[in-house]
Amino acid sequence: MSEHKQTENNPQGKDKKMVIAMGSIGLICALLIVLTYQGTFASIEKNKAEALEKAIFKVLPGISKTKAFQLNQDQTFSETNATDPKIPKVYAGYDSIGQLKGIAVQANGKGYGEVLNLLYGYDIDNQKIVGFYVLESKETPGIGDKIEKEDFLANFKAMDAALNDDFTKIKNEITTVKHGEKTNDWQIDGITGATITSRAVGNILSMSSNQWMPLIYKNKKSFLINDKSK
Amino acid sequence: MSVINQNKSEKGFLSSIADHPSTDEFIKGVWRENPVFVQVLGMCPSLAVSNSAKNALAMGLATAFVLLMSNILISLLRDFIPKQVRIASYILIIATFVTVIDYAMQAISIELHKSLGAFIALIVVNCIILSRAEAFASKNTVGKSILDALGMGIGFTFALLCIGGVREILGSGSFLGFEFMPDSFEKWVIMVLPAGGFFTLAFLLLIFNSFKIKNNRA
Amino acid sequence: MRKITLHIATSPHVVKGASTETIMKNVIYALLPAAAFGVYAFGISALLVLLTTTISAVAIEHFLCKISKKESTVSDYSAAITGLLLGMCLPPDFPLWMAFMGSAISIGLGKFIFGGLGYNVFNPALVGRAFLQATFPVPITTWYQAFGPDRFYHISSSVLALPFMQPAVDGVSGATPLSAFKFDHVDTQTYDLAMGFINGSIGETGTVFLILGGIYLAWRKMLNWRIPVSIFITVFVFSGAAYLINNTAYPSPVFTLFSGGLMLGAIYMATDMVASPITSMGVWVYGAIIGILVVMIRLWGGLPEGVMYAILLANAISPHIDNLIRPRVYGTTNKLKLS
Q1: Which secondary structure element, helix H or strand E, spans residue C310, and what is its range?
Q2: Does C166 sit within 8 Å of B184, measured CB to CB?
Q3: Is C331 domain-assigned?
């Protein structure tokens, strides 16, 4: 440090200048980001809601309308219009004559890069996952993003998610196996080269199904809509 | 001549545009120093998201926006940023505008944002932007930097649109989503695959370079 | 291109070898019987495909030489061989405009862009074939029934498809022995395979003629016999081992040897003088790599046929094979690297 002092006239002043420069650039940048976030928040939320609606129709084949239900504190479900993302919600899908076809559940978890935001369709009567859609992912292009491709989606055409006998847990945990080793309906055929991403999907689904399916099954009746009585 | 001199002495924003050599700053990025076809920079996005003209256009415009904004800010702050921390500051500024465009794109269309995927975030490491910041904006006036950024940005967008257009027309029989080929058009599957990106880029480079050689001879 | 033969003599080692032109001409003579059998088996459509690829390859070579202001190299017959080989590994009812494109890619990207004959990294005909396979996966795997009754006076409408348009589907499409085995598990009689009473690419079914042509070239010392022999041995041993382990899931080694484009590829394409190794030990390794890749792709790959990719991959590593097996120079410790 003493040598440094000799060569430079005023190192403290320089250090100070650097700190100030970096600090103020950081401030400007932070300000810009916050402003943009504020400015675009409303339309992003609106777009996301629309995209979610479209996705619900994708994961629940054969439905013609959906309704959102929020999970209350006492573990029951009730219809809701709330948009606050903090409230846990599921989406029920009905066919044209108002019969309940299934429930779409959103599930988040860590992927390879950033958060994976998934949506899957759950058929209560058959206790199967009938559809899967990636809402948001930043997985490696060409490798991790194969989870959005047809081959991988084929896993979720009729995935076994049966509950155990006392309806508290999934009987057979959803797991990801190596590519080509899938033998049972509750297994996900992994993607060669994208082990982490495909395993992440398995973990997210396993956690989410254990959390939601017993609740949904217990409150099955609250999703039914009685058009006749109204 | 006198007008130019007068403007030069003012050193204002408008003078830079009126100044003849500065107009050249704009043209050079579009054609003579085109970032893709001449400098061969930013290969990752130009190969990866050019499978359709729409993606290519969106990517090109997003990059052009980041380039323009970061060039302006860096050129404004060029005397303020100490030499030792300049790269860190440039990256910070670039990353900020990438975040801004990321939000903006989500607000415009979630679908588009999804089809570009991780490549929006990867604009941060697009070497065109950092190279313009280091090589140009940090040494020139705001006006010149704007022209440089506009030229480079348009050049990049133009190059991406060329690649994306060829790949979409041959690979999907459409342009910007508009299907104009007859139904019986045989789609060139390779063109929507990664290999098609390499083939198209190489082919366009061939054409571009043959033009250049001809011009140099003339 | 000169064929190097080993003579044990004191210096000066001056030998008059066969010229490129002579070798290429002989290769064409050797290929013609198998091509003629293909035309006999698949009819006039196959003849049109062969003529298109050959003529367009020669024309494109001439044209490229002209625009780059070089002397035309058409007269060395190498372009004609590339075109003929490309045609022989295409389906008999392949649209002519696609065949033309294949020739353009073969000559342009496979050969000319590297600097012409003697500089090509890959077998040019296979480069064209690989491009067509990736670009038009459906037409290139559509096989019509061989020995159709009206094959000599009826031109298949898919052959005459308009440029850039999909070929119309007419006639009875049939499976090749390989795809039949891979997807439906139907075995084909070895006799039919050897005599060519099967569907397949124009030039790959005349197995007997391909072998005879190969023997002729080997006898004239215009073909490195080690390459095909090495490929055949590896394929036979490797697929034989798989067959012994599980004879229901895997085809017999004889089937593997005689089906698909193995004969055509091993004798005429893998032996490309420029794209194969130059040392005789390297040539054995090269053949073994091709053999192993062919069996691996056929048994465990998604595609029924793997000869093309096997040869292209082996072409890519052939300089490295030479490099690896280069003997240590006496008195030195480190292997010298070919730069």
Answers
A1: helix C307-325
A2: yes
A3: no
What is the rounded CA–CA span in Å between residue C4 and residue C16?
10
339 residues of chain C, pLDDT tens digit each: 566 666 566 665 565 667 888 888 899 999 999 999 999 998 898 999 999 999 999 999 999 999 888 888 888 888 999 999 999 999 988 999 999 999 999 999 999 888 888 888 999 999 999 999 988 888 888 887 788 787 888 787 788 888 888 887 665 667 788 877 777 677 777 788 878 888 888 988 888 999 999 999 999 888 889 999 999 999 999 999 999 998 888 888 888 888 888 999 999 999 988 888 988 889 999 999 999 999 999 888 777 888 999 999 999 999 889 888 877 667 666 555 544
Q: Looking at CA atoms only, how far is residue B196 from chain C in angstroms? A: 9
Contact residues on chain C for B189, CB-CB shorter than 8 A: 134-137
State which residue of chain A sits closest to B109, comparing Cα positions: A47
ipTM higher than 0.95? no
Among candidates B77, B82, B118 on the partner chain, residue whose Cβ is nearest the Cβ of A17: B82
DSSP strand E in chain B: where? 174-175, 178-179
- The closest of A212, A218, A189 to A201, measured between CA atoms, is A189
Are residues B160 and B59 in contact, defined by beta-carbon separation less than 8 angstroms?
Answer: yes
CATH number of the domain residue C130 falls in: 1.10.3430
List of chains touching A (3+ CB pairs within 8 A): B
Cross-chain CB nearest to C135 (options B182, B184, B189): B189
- Write out chain C residues lying below 8 Å of B193, CB-based: 134
**Which domain does C229 fall in, by range?**
20-325
Answer yes or no: do A18 and B85 touch at CB < 8 A: yes
- How many domains is chain C built from? 1
- Give the gap in angstroms from C-alpha C301 to the nearest C-alpha of chain B: 19
DSSP H helices, C142-184, are: 177-179
* Residue that has been written with the tokens 């003339």 in this structure: B218
Q: How far is CA C26 from CA B123, C130, C189, C221, C268, in A?
A: 57, 26, 32, 11, 12
Neighbours of A23 (CB within 10 A): 10
List chain B residues with CB under 8 Å of C164.
181, 185-186
* Residue C136 contacts B where some CB pair is shorter than 8 Å: yes
| Residue B199: DSSP 8-state | H
Q: Which residues 113-142 on chain A approach chain B with CB closer than 8 angstroms?
A: 113, 136-142
Alpha helices in A109-158 (DSSP H): 150-153
Q: Scanning the structure block, which residue is given the tokens 């649109």?
A: B161
Strand partners, A128: A123, A160
Yes or no, beta carbons of A50 and B92 under 8 Å apart? no
Q: How far is CA A126 from the centre of its chain?
A: 23
Best of C135, C166, C169, C312 to disrupt the B interface by mutation (most B CBs within 10 Å)? C135
Q: Sign of the CA dihedral A95, A97, A102, A107?
A: positive
**Residue pair C65/C74 in contact by the 8 Å Cβ criterion:** yes
CB contact under 8 Å between B186 and C167, yes or no, is yes
